[in-house]
Amino acid sequence: MLDLTLETATEKFLHFGNSLVSVTRVIAYRSKKTAHQEYPQICMVFKRLLQRSGSCWTSKSRTNLITLETSLNQATFTARATALAAFAMVSASAFALPNIDANIELDSKYQNNDRGASQSGRVELNASQKLGSKYFMAGRATYLSKPDGSAGTDDLWAQFGTESADIKLGRFEAANLFQTPGDVIVEYSGFSPYQANVLRGRQGAYANGSAPFHAAVNVQLGGGLSLEVSGVSSKGAGGATGLRPVLNYANGPLHLAAGVEAIKYEGTAATTTIDTTSCTLVGSTCTFGSTTTAATASVNRTGYGLTGDYNFGGVTLYANYAAGKSRSNIKQNTFALMAGIGNLTLASVFGKGSNLSADDKVTTFWVAYAIPFFDVKGAKITPAISHSKSSGPNEAPNATGFALRVNYEF
Predict the structure, then answer these.
(1) Neighbours of 380 (CB within 10 A)
(2) Is 281 exposed, middle or buried (0-12, 13-18, 19+ CB in 10 A)?
(3) Gene3D superfamilies attached here (predicted)?
(4) Which class would CATH give 99-121+162-263+302-409?
């Protein structure tokens, strides 16, 4: 068996066609003197090659040879075109092109408490592909360009396995345990309540360009049940490491998910900050003041999350509950109710943080309405408003924000 690549085989095939044309031209040249002796045999050879019938011999042998050369040029051109078409078809199947899509999301905001007007958003470019039947390999990369001129990566992962089980590695988001539909703008006054997403993924990056380790194993259990066990390893002061198993159930309009976060927060070293704005003069020496922050030890924390939604047709109801302890040992509980009514989203979140002395509470509402932009496919404009109020020892001013999101998928 010949060990040829597709490119090599195509090149040899085209070279063979060029050689046939050259041979015919030489024969035609020789036929000026020996056509009556050689032409019948030559014609029979090319008749078989071109699969033609009919008489070869006439009194104008040279004219016939020129005609035969023209026919061979046409046949060689057909061979070239066929080879190139075959090469393109085989390449398309053996080396499938990625799926490319992009979208822009631009938020124009106004927020109270002297925060004023601002813009945020990104242009998102996605490249993805999945190949294989019994066994598959998939991958996705999402590149971002932001209004401040910076660029970044949202997703960058590889996945491989079968229909019943697979493994995903890289930068991605694991299963969602706290759904927030219509979250164009979400204000939290005082503190952000726990939402069982510490180990969900997209943990940031290190200074050397690498990122924390993140992997997930997905197993289909049957009957609408699936299990995802993801793990994160984040080094450095305060980094979070741990496991996050999530059990999902989906059956028609009903979806439920429950999970646990087993987190280890890395400790921090003692730090000293020098105050260079003023000094104490001792003799002829100026001594600057300093502030020392004590080292902290590593701590283990556990969190829980439960989410569910049910689609009634034109209305979808959502409910979330999350509970856990923060790194500073504050017990947190968060409850949320949301509704999607066509293009309208209504949402409320109630969070509480408890310590030994008193409770901090935060209540947040938001409303968003997605408006299709006339008949432009993939384009919509979404006005939204959010309001938040807090109470307790760490009470903060009410937070209110308005936003207009322009989204276009192209």
Answers:
(1) 16
(2) exposed
(3) Porin
(4) mainly beta
Give CA separation, 118 vs 75, 125, 152, 189, in Å. 67, 23, 20, 19
Tell me how far CA of residue 383 lies from CA of 219, 344, 362, in angstroms: 39, 10, 23
CA torsion through residues 20, 26, 31, 35, sign: negative
Average pLDDT, the chain: 83
For the whole model, what pTM was predicted? 0.73
In 3D, which of 291, 296, 299, 259 has the Cα closest to residue 275?
291
User: Is-contact 300 263, C-beta < 8 A?
Assistant: yes
Q: What is the DSSP letter of 196?
A: S
State how far the Cα of 14 lies from the Cα of 286, in Å rounded to an integer.
Answer: 85
Report, in this order, helix, strand and coil percent for the chain, each rounded to 5: 20, 50, 30
For the chain, the residue count is: 410
**What are 281's two structure tokens?**
């003069």
pLDDT in tens, 210-256: 899 999 999 999 999 999 999 999 988 788 999 999 999 999 999 99
Domain ranges in the chain are 6-94, 99-121+162-263+302-409
Task: Tell me the C-alpha distance between 286 and 264, whole Å.
Answer: 43
* 334 and 194 Cβ atoms separated by less than 8 Å: yes
Beta-carbon count within 10 A of 288 CB: 11
Place of tokens 């345990």: 177
